[in-house]
Write a structure and sequence with these properties.
The chain is built from 5 helices and 13 strands. It is α/β, with parallel strands linked by helices and 197 residues long. A hairpin with a 4-residue loop joins strand 12 and strand 13. 31% of the residues are buried.
Length: 197
């Protein structure tokens, strides 16, 4: 798959996400939340990184609300000014206002506590597409791959557990992978769960 092919795939999937009506989005978010909170890793986790949905991404707001009620610490991605570590994770307080980063994505402000990603139990990662072997196609900036590059050199038990979240239609049989890609441990959708080795 060429760079041009990836761009076409990104555009097609994003258009499909944006075409969903509000009822379909809400139903999918509720179903995804149910799948996530019933998992064994959720019961064991104390610190979970999530995200605020933009551009038609599957909404994790119901999950964040439930996790906070269950006493979990929720963190959100925050852009950092480092090339080798462009993404950090800051604690989320629902009473504090989020700010928009340069991509228009809400993130915690500079006063929010930044956690070392190695202390997170789970990271719920947005994606454009995923395949049945755990490959993830993101928006093309490589933020998550660089943030978790150290995972490529560690055993499978190393934290955090990387879980993609998506709509069912974002699944593809096989996506290209590169040496710098960090594979997912699992993907949860509104109706399916995929676990990878």
């Amino acid at each position: 798959m060429t760079v041009s092919d990836k761009q076409l795939l990104r555009r097609a999937v994003r258009a499909q996400r944006l075409s969903l009506d509000s009822v379909a989005r809400s139903d999918a978010a509720t179903a995804l939340c149910s799948n996530l909170v019933q998992s064994a890793w959720y019961r064991r986790s104390k610190r979970i990184a999530s995200y605020i949905a933009v551009h038609g991404e599957i909404d994790l707001a119901p999950f964040i609300k439930q996790a906070l009620q269950d006493g979990k610490t929720i963190c959100l991605p925050r852009l950092l000014p480092y090339h080798d570590r462009p993404l950090g994770f800051a604690s989320y307080d629902p009473h504090q206002q989020l700010i928009l980063n340069r991509f228009g994505i809400p993130e915690p402000g500079r006063t929010a506590h930044l956690l070392n990603s190695r202390f997170l139990d789970v990271v719920l990662a947005p994606l454009v597409a995923f395949d049945e072997t755990g490959n993830r196609l993101g928006m093309g900036g490589g933020y998550y791959d660089r943030a978790f590059a150290y995972r490529r050199h560690r055993s499978g038990t190393c934290r955090p557990r990387l879980i993609g979240v998506a709509y069912d239609f974002q699944r593809f049989q096989l996506l290209p992978s590169h040496s710098w890609d960090v594979p997912l441990h699992a993907v949860y959708t509104d109706s399916l769960i995929f676990e990878f080795n």
